[in-house]
C-alpha cells in the first residue's frame, strides 16, 4: 500500500484527497498547503467521513514537507486558478514559481516519487516539474486528458441519452482550446459514434469540449474541481493497482508522433512505474495537422516559461 501526497488543499487538491480516501486503495494521504490550517481542517473533515463511508485511508493535513517523506506518488495542485476572462496560459508567471518551489521541496523528502501535475497551464507546468525534478520521463506527467475526455463523454451521453460508461474516446494535444478530440476513435458500446449522431451535432460537442474548462469558469467565477479531482485520483488508482489501464495523459514526447522535448496529451498505459507505454495512433492528415497546431501553441507557452527562467 502506498503513501500519496497532494500539494495544494484548495478546491482541486481537497477533492483529489477526498476521492482517494473513498477509494480506500492507499495507506496514507498527506494534504499539504502553505495554508496549514486549511489543509489540517480539510484532512480532518475528510477523515471524519471514514466511519460513514467505510474507508480506512489515513489522511493528514500539514504545511511541513517533512510529513511528506517517503511519498510514492505526489499530486501537485498548488497554484492559482483562472478567473473569467483569463486563459490558462495567463497563470504562468505565478504558477511556474509555485510548481518549481513545490517540486524542489518534495524531492528533498522523497527520493523517487511519481509526480502527477495538475496546476495550469498544465503542459508547461508538467514540463517545469520534469526539468526541475530531474526524474525520468516515465515518472512525471500531467492530468488533463482524463478530464477533457470525461467532459466529451458526458456531453455525448446527454445528447444520445446513453450511459456515459458506454462511451469510450481518445483526445490528444495540449490542455487548452487547441486540444484535439478524435471522433474517429470515439465509440458508443463499440459502435462508431459517427453512426449514432449527426455530423453537425458532433461538431458542436467537440467545440464545447475544447472550451469545457472555460464554460465552468464562466458559471462559477473560478475553475472546476469535482471532475478534475476525480480524474487525478483515477490516475493514482491505476498506478497503485497496476491494472494496465489506458488513458490520455500529458507526457514527455521523445520522438513519438514526430515530436520531441515537449509535454503533450497522448494515450498511454499507466502502471506501477508511472508511464508504462506511450501509444502511437495512426493519425490521418487532418488529425495530425490539429495535433501539430496544438504542439505549436504549447511550444509558444514553453518559450515564455524558458524566458522567465533565463531572467
Ligand atoms: N489540469 C487540469 O485539468 C486542471 C487544472 N486546474 C488547476 O489546478 C490549480 C488549483 O486549482 P484550485 O484547486 O481550484 O485552486 P485553489 O485556489 O482552490 O487552491 C490552490 C491552493 O494552492 C495553495 N498554494 C499556493 N501556493 C502554494 C505553495 N507554494 N505550496 C503549497 N500550496 C500552495 C493555495 O494556498 C490554495 O489552497 C490551478 O492552477 C488550476 O488552474 C484546475 C482544474 C483542472
Ligand atoms: O479551465 C481551467 O482553468 C481549469 C482547467 O484546466 C479545467 O477545468 O479544464
UniProtKB/TrEMBL annotation:
It catalyses: (S)-malate + NAD(+) = oxaloacetate + NADH + H(+). This is Malate dehydrogenase. Pfam families: Ldh_1_C, Ldh_1_N. Keywords: NAD, Oxidoreductase, Tricarboxylic acid cycle. One of its GO terms (biological process) is tricarboxylic acid cycle. The active site is at residue 175. Residues 3-142 form the Lactate/malate dehydrogenase N-terminal domain. It is an enzyme of class 1 (oxidoreductase). The keyword Ribosomal protein does not apply. SUPFAM superfamilies: LDH C-terminal domain-like, NAD(P)-binding Rossmann-fold domains. Catalyzes the reversible oxidation of malate to oxaloacetate. Belongs to the LDH/MDH superfamily. MDH type 3 family.
Amino acid at each position: 500500500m502506498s503513501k500519496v501526497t497532494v500539494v495544494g488543499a484548495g478546491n482541486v487538491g481537497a477533492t483529489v484527497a477526498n476521492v482517494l480516501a473513498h477509494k480506500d486503495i492507499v495507506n496514507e494521504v498527506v494534504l499539504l498547503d502553505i495554508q496549514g490550517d486549511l489543509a489540517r481542517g480539510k484532512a480532518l473533515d475528510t477523515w471524519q467521513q471514514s466511519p460513514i463511508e467505510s474507508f480506512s485511508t489515513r489522511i493528514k493535513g500539514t504545511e511541513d514537507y517533512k510529513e511528506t517523506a517517503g511519498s510514492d506518488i505526489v499530486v501537485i495542485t498548488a497554484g492559482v486558478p483562472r478567473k473569467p476572462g483569463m486563459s490558462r496560459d495567463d497563470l504562468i508567471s505565478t504558477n511556474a514559481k509555485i510548481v518549481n518551489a513545490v517540486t524542489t521541496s518534495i524531492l528533498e523528502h522523497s527520493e523517487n516519487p511519481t509526480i502527477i501535475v495538475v496546476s495550469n497551464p498544465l503542459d508547461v507546468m508538467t514540463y517545469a516539474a520534469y526539468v526541475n525534478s530531474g526524474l525520468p520521463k516515465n515518472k512525471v506527467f500531467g492530468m488533463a486528458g482524463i478530464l477533457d475526455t470525461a467532459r466529451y463523454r458526458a456531453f455525448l451521453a446527454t445528447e444520445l441519452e446513453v450511459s456515459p460508461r458506454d462511451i469510450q474516446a481518445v483526445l490528444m494535444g495540449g490542455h487548452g482550446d487547441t486540444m484535439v478530440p478524435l471522433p474517429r476513435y470515439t465509440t458508443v458500446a463499440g459502435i462508431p459514434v459517427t453512426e449514432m449522431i449527426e455530423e453537425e451535432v458532433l461538431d458542436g460537442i467537440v467545440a464545447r469540449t475544447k472550451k469545457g474548462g472555460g464554460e465552468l469558469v464562466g458559471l462559477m467565477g473560478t475553475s472546476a474541481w469535482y471532475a478534475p479531482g476525480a480524474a487525478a485520483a483515477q490516475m493514482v488508482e491505476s498506478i497503485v493497482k497496476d491494472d494496465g489501464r489506458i488513458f490520455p495523459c500529458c507526457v514527455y514526447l521523445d520522438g513519438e508522433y514526430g515530436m520531441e522535448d515537449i509535454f503533450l496529451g497522448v494515450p498511454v498505459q499507466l502502471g506501477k512505474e508511472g508511464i508504462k507505454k506511450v501509444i502511437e495512433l495512426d493519425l490521418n492528415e487532418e488529425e495530425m495537422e490539429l495535433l501539430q497546431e496544438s504542439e505549436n501553441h504549447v511550444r509558444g507557452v514553453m518559450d515564455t516559461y524558458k524566458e522567465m527562467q533565463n531572467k
